[in-house]
Amino acid sequence: MATIEKTxxxxxxxxxxxxxxxxxxxxxxxxxxxxxNYDQKDExxxxxxEAGQYFGExxxxxxxxxxxxxxxxxxxxxxxxxxxxxxxxxxxxxDKILSIMKLLGNRIRVMTDNYNEVKxxxxxxxxxxxxxxxxxxxxQMQKQSIFLTSKNxxxxxxxxxxxxxxxxxxxxxxxxxxxxxxxxxxxxKQGEVGKCMYIxxxxxxxIYSNYGAVNEFKLQEVTPVACFxxxxxxxxxxxxxxxxxxxxxxxxxxxRPEDIPALFSTTPAKVDMxxxxxxxxxxxxxxxxxxxxxxxxxxx
Length: 300
Fold this sequence. Notes:
This protein is of the alpha+beta class. Among the domains are: 4-93, Jelly Rolls (Sandwich), CATH 2.60.120; 174-266, Jelly Rolls. It is built from eight helices and 14 strands. It has helices at 57-62, 86-92, 95-128, 135-143, 161-170, 230-235, 260-266, 268-297, and strands at 4-8, 13-15, 23-36, 44-49, 54-55, 69-82, 178-181, 186-188, 197-202, 205-209, 217-222, 226-228, 242-245, 250-255. Strands 1, 2, 3, 4, 5 and 6 form a six-stranded antiparallel sheet that branches. A four-stranded antiparallel sheet has the order 7-14-9-12. A hairpin with a 7-residue loop joins strand 10 (205-209) and strand 11. Helix 3 (95-128) runs parallel beside helix 8 (268-297), helix 5 (161-170) runs antiparallel to helix 8 (268-297) and helix 7 crosses helix 8.
């Protein structure tokens, strides 16, 4: 299948929740609406897509079923890109790979903020054993098209298999732009604005909240071959954690936004790993978010 333009009339389904997907789309003209449980009793409108935006990319990146239904709102024109045409599409449009990464990064940031909010509510519900205080809270979330109301929503923890395979694909590739750090070296600090991301090639990196403070908490350990710091780079916002070398001779590859197009040309497997890492993180935080919402709804 080649990369082609398609048109849809108002009300036509472009992609359907649950279907397997081997293509993704860029909306060229018009608007489209994203739904969960489309045309069912508990249908929820999740988002409105505008011209220029991508959708359906996660099914291609991780080979997952479609997570939502997208319906044309008025007449629309889309560019449909088959998974086997992705490399050629990005080669011809090198700026697009960074746009897709930024799209995923923004979704992760929004869902993380949503999860942090609902996690506070969940902690309160667990203490009081009642959700009465938060019924209005969820009504508001539903109006904002954030919360899926169905108690029968099938929660699926994402598999890390695609992420593991992507890491293996780059494990033997000689890294460029690498720096070696000794134990205890701070790679970046919480609160600093992100300018680059990293791939660990040897050693390990600890990711800490409130590093060095009395309430220091280790969030994650990053080992070869995995990414960290990509959200700060993509959004150029303040880092939400501190990264610290956990061993001597910890070697990391430094990647800046302007490096991405060239990196795709020389070592596309690394870009594929970054995309899969972003997609996995988004699926993981979405799973935790809906899991917490479901627990609060069902609290007696």
